[in-house]
Design brief:
Elements: H1 13-33, H2 45-50, E1 83-84, E2 87-88, E3 91-96, H3 102-110, E4 117-121, H4 132-138, E5 143-147, H5 151-154, H6 159-173, E6 177-183, H7 195-211, E7 216-221, H8 236-239, H9 245-248, E8 253-257, H10 271-284, E9 289-294, H11 310-321, H12 324-331, E10 335-341, H13 344-348, H14 358-364
Parallel strand pairs: 3-4, 3-10, 4-5, 5-6, 6-7, 7-8, 8-9, 9-10
Antiparallel strand pairs: 1-2
Helix pairs in contact: 6-7, 10-12
Amino acid sequence: MNRATKRPARVNWQGFWVACALVLIGVLMVWLSQPKAGPAPETSESSRQSHVTPEPSPSTSTSTTRPATPSAPPSVPTPEPVTVGPVVAPLHGLTVDSVDDLDALVASVSALSHRPTLRMVFEADRSPADYAAAVTALEPYADLMGLVLDSTAMAQLSVPEVTARTQAFVDAFAHQIAIWEVGNEVNGEWVGAGPDEIVAKVAAANRVVKAAGEPSAITFNYWSGPDCYAEPWEVGATFVTHVPADMAGAVDLVMLSVYETACDPPQQPSATQLAGELTMLGQVFGNAKLGIGEIGAQGVDDDLPTNPTFAEKERIAQRYMGMAPELRAALGDRFVGGWFWWYFVEDAVPKDKPESLWPVLNELA
């Protein structure tokens, strides 16, 4: 073993610092070779807006809008029917002046296409008992209008007698007769000595009917001119000036009797003329419905020289019943029809007799 003393190794400091310098220089060179990071690029306004989800506006809403549910059409109220008392218009009127052949009469009435309104003429020499069977037999097939006294019979009775007769019939048939005709062709000189006498009788009958709570009717003559009447007071507009206001307001139905041969030369009124007369009457009888109360083809029994032919009867029926649309247009809901062919028993009972007018009346009435 070498006996020499072992010493630590001598450090070369000059080389060390040179090496450190070289390393630092290398690091610096590497650092300088890297690209310098600049400030973050500014985002443009348009770019920012393109990345912002716009809030929906009411007009551009993305939600699904349900279509409005269609509302049901407004309900149209059903108009109230036009009535005269319990009878619904239009009135399909016919007149029965005899109930002697009751079976044939019921057969003719029950076969009609429309439920008719039958005027029953209560003859002056008969009592309610004489009509009880007929009223009971006809009521299922017709609305009944009771004429307490025909025009010619009115002149034969006093006011107290008219009152008593009306009371007797109302007491007997108040629940079966639908309308009470308290005066027929009232503005005729054959009904009484003058308008005051006639009106007193009609008013008396009307008071009885209204006291029982029943509807009443009055029929006037239609006159186209002075060739139709004998007395100045027979003119409708003159006669009604004698009607008291309380009576005028208490009548439910006012009608016109229209006969061509009631005048000489014969009259042939137009729908416009009839509507004008009914308008005048409607102004006086402010609460009344309006109608045609009597038509027919007169003959020997009416003091004419001959009886009408079937063709003449048919012509008259078609002419006046055919005016219904014009009269309704002129008078509105106040016009309720009527017609009341006076000779129904004579012309259409039995309904299938030769030259029976039943098919014509069935179609028109």
